[in-house]
Write a structure and sequence with these properties.
The protein is built from one helix and 32 strands. By secondary structure, it is mainly beta.
């Protein structure tokens, strides 16, 4: 892969980006307090909207290609906002979090989304209603007991209370819907908890372990077919699991990131490959089935790049101080085909 096109007109680091599932649009948010809409097929920036009052951190498309939900980054208002990019109008405010929102995932098949915050809450929302729809209180306890100089650590005991849209967690959480909207996952404290949106009042129907990695969760997401899921952590690990049985299939290691950075990874559309940034700014690709690294590319960045694979396309985008679109290196592809 090589960079086929780059936009270098950002005056701040890109903090989030998202491809629309059914169009050629890409949206980005950056530390220069701008939201930008791109037409990837025509390699053009269609619109730039500034959010000077509230700032902008995370951004995601709704099912409509010109409507997004984004989180604030001003330190005093942590509301989420439903924004029309056509006329730069706020359609709805979603208030409830009291600290920075660090995870935002929309269900592409339904008008619902999930958010997770450093206030240790996870909230489930309906885009048509300003108040969160489901409240789950989950307490995670750690018991320590010394007996005969042996330290006994019970990793988790969960008690769930249902109220109206809220899930309390221990540590930094990450959350995601699967593409069909059949389940959602919440990761924190070395475990991934699986929920059925129709039976959330029953608590998680399964809990998956990532085998001893208790560093803070960064990103959790599903493959397009829902069979795989990945979790990135601040310790520099990218864990790939079977989303049905929770089997840990592979763990890829990159250079750990700083506490204020995000390690992001993404599945290819067919779920065969995973790509990820790294704490040294490099980009890596692995074969999910074999667990082997198949490629890596060095970048000039000192922090990990955000990375998203374009739906149904042999292209991924990275975001750092610039937005880059990576496409196959045709010269190397030709040599490979010649050998075959």
């Amino acid at each position: 892969m090589e960079v086929g096109l780059a936009f270098r007109d950002y005056s701040g680091r890109i903090s989030s980006m998202d491809f629309h599932k059914a169009s050629s649009y890409l949206v980005t948010a950056s530390d220069d307090e701008s939201i930008r809409l791109y037409d990837v097929a025509n390699a053009t920036c269609l619109k730039t909207i500034n959010s000077k009052k509230y700032g902008v951190d995370l951004v995601s498309f709704t099912p409509h290609p010109t409507t997004v939900i984004y989180s604030s980054k001003n330190g005093w208002d942590e509301s989420l906002r439903l924004l029309s990019l056509n006329d730069n109008k706020y359609l709805r405010y979603f208030k409830g979090h009291h600290d920075r929102v660090v995870s935002l995932s929309l269900c592409s098949r339904r008008e619902c989304f999930i958010s997770a915050s450093l206030d240790r809450t996870v909230m489930l929302w309906d885009q048509r209603v300003e108040k969160c729809q489901v409240v789950i209180l989950l307490f995670w306890y750690i018991f320590l007991r010394k007996k005969f100089r042996i330290l006994l650590l019970l990793r988790y005991v969960t008690t769930i209370f249902l109220f109206q849209g809220l899930l309390h967690v221990q540590g930094r959480p990450a959350a995601a819907y699967d593409d069909q909207g059949l389940v959602f996952a919440i990761a924190f404290g070395g475990y991934i908890r699986m929920f059925d949106p129709r039976k959330y009042d029953k608590g998680p129907f399964d809990i998956f372990s990532v085998e001893g990695d208790f560093s803070d969760a960064n990103v959790v997401k599903f493959s397009n077919d829902g069979r795989l899921m990945l979790l990135t952590t601040t310790g520099g690990c990218i864990h790939v699991l079977d989303s049905f049985h929770g089997t840990l299939l592979s763990t890829f290691i990159v250079k750990p990131i700083s506490s204020n950075s995000t390690l992001e990874a993404s599945f290819s559309p067919d779920g065969v490959f995973a790509v990820s940034g790294s704490g040294d700014g490099s980009v890596h690709a692995w074969n999910v089935g074999s667990g082997k690294e198949v490629a890596s590319w060095m970048c000039n960045e000192k922090e990990p790049s955000l990375i998203k694979w374009a739906p149904g396309s042999l292209m991924f985008a990275t975001g750092s101080s610039e937005l880059s679109f990576w496409v196959p290196d045709l010269s190397k592809l030709g040599a490979y085909v010649g050998r075959k």
